[in-house]
């Protein structure tokens, strides 16, 4: 779980406790396709806010493991 939290912190560049598409794209330096990015947000953004909270990310990452 701590690893997931650190992953989130690493991507949350502006430290607003939300991960947005721009931050995810910047973190992967263009190594993520639009389809992959869209699918990530569909799967992880459970409240459909357009951003992924720490809890949403941890839940998503735990589901993958």
UniProtKB/TrEMBL annotation:
Record SUPFAM superfamilies: EF-hand (SSF47473)
InterPro entries: EF-hand-dom_pair, EF_Hand_1_Ca_BS, EF_hand_dom
Keyword annotations of the record: Calcium
Protein name: CPK16 protein
Domain EF-hand, residue spans: 32-65
Keyword Calcium on entry: yes
Gene Ontology MF annotations: calcium ion binding
Species this protein is from: Symbiodinium natans
Superkingdom of source: Eukaryota
């Amino acid at each position: 779980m701590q690893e997931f939290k650190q992953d989130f912190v690493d991507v949350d560049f502006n430290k607003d406790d939300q991960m947005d598409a721009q931050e995810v794209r910047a973190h992967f330096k263009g190594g993520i396709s639009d389809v992959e990015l869209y699918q990530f947000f569909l799967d992880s953004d459970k409240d459909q806010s357009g951003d992924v909270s720490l809890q949403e990310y941890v839940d998503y990452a735990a589901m993958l493991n």
